[in-house]
Amino acid sequence: TVGKPIVCKAMVARGPKQPLVLENVTVDPPKAGEVRVKVIANALCHTDVYTLDGHDPEGLFPCILGHEAGCVVESVGEGVLSVKPGDHVIPCYTPQCCQPSCIFCQSPKTNLCPQIRATQGIGVMPDGGVRFRGSDGKPIYHFMGCSTMCEYTVLAEISCAKISKELPLEKACLFGCGVSTGLGAVWNTCGVEPNSSVAVFGLGAVGLAVIQGAKMAGASRIIAVDINPDKFSKAVALGATDTVDSSELDKPVQTHIIEMTKWGVDYTFDCTGNVNVMRAALECAHRGWGTSCVIGVAASGHEISTRPFQLVTGRTWKGTAFGGFKSRRDVPILAQRCIDGTLPVDHFITHTFDGVGCTNDAIDALHGGGCLRAVCHH
Ligand code: NAD
Ligand code: AHE
Ligand code: ZN
């Protein structure tokens, strides 16, 4: 297959709010600086559903969604030296070019390498073209530089984190987005210290990864908030010390949490994407020093607000993309910790399906409420 197009199955998002369509697509060979991979396992992230539902200002159709995957390199384009056929890689929607001229890659303050961000945001590869065509011969857009709801995909070399072959790709895929993001928000973006207090809003995979990361960082109080009480048992198992069903309260959740804690919480995390929850999370951060981190992705047109007094009185509002992890450097380390047994992730996989064609079932599972990650084995 090297150097030739591959015809394979993909789930194509033809339009907003429409079920994905199982189609035969043609995946072109990788060009210079690109890598073609076989997608072994793909997990569904809420962001895929958000874009499919038409809430993403960058959403383009038709496209192939998916950005949380474990893959094997099939072939590499000209000049690619960092991976070779047979290597196991995690596609990373936040790339890491590592160039001496990249002030973002050179800075320890950020992971936001902008090298291919502009083309990624308009659904094309860095040369401006696409590598997917439908059976009608028409182009299909890429998504987040990954497009893993397909049996094969083409990635920029700088988006490929090479990991140990010891970790099954069905688990490794989790490090492609949600789990890494939650852990990194705690460890990198906020630097949660031992004995601090934490509040987590939204107990999907991202929120539970925040709890797991906070427990590992030595947080002494971890308040878990959701509107679905079925989410609490896993939160407690991972280290939550208090649970709050915010749908049952007769007052704003921030008021309730301030009453629970006197002055608020050292670190709060929004893992819902709801701008009202983001406000609540900021407003229950501790007077004088509390930090609130936005992880959730808000729908197009939604904006955050609060009284500036909340910031004047010492709260900090920040956000994170991929938990601040420098992707190609850090994802292999997370994978190794999982192999070593110091970073268990099995509890995130609540549903598994066989074949890329089952991705709509995975979406149904995520909507069902009992799901953290649904993994499709392609
Ligand atoms: P998910 O849908 O599995 O989980 C969301 C949780 O929030 C659910 O348990 C839901 O019951 C809860 N929730 C909904 N409304 C709530 C409310 N008003 N108050 C409290 N809880 C509420 O989603 P996920 O995959 O865990 O992703 C969480 C968010 O993080 C999404 O917005 C996703 O797009 C975003 N995300 C961001 C990054 C990043 O890098 N910044 C990475 C991954 C995911
Ligand atoms: N495309 C949207 C924004 C979507 C967004 O914020 N994405 C997160 C990752 S979500 C992963 O599940 C992110 O890291 N963004 C940084 C980036 O460079 O995209 C919009 O508003 O246009
Ligand atoms: Zn994601």
Automatic annotation (TrEMBL):
Superkingdom per UniProt: Eukaryota
Entry's family note: Belongs to the esterase D family.
Protein name: S-formylglutathione hydrolase
Annotated signal peptide: none
Residue ranges occupied by any Alcohol dehydrogenase-like C-terminal domain in the UniProt entry: 205-329
Native source species: Discostella pseudostelligera
Domain Alcohol dehydrogenase-like N-terminal, first and last residues per copy: 32-163
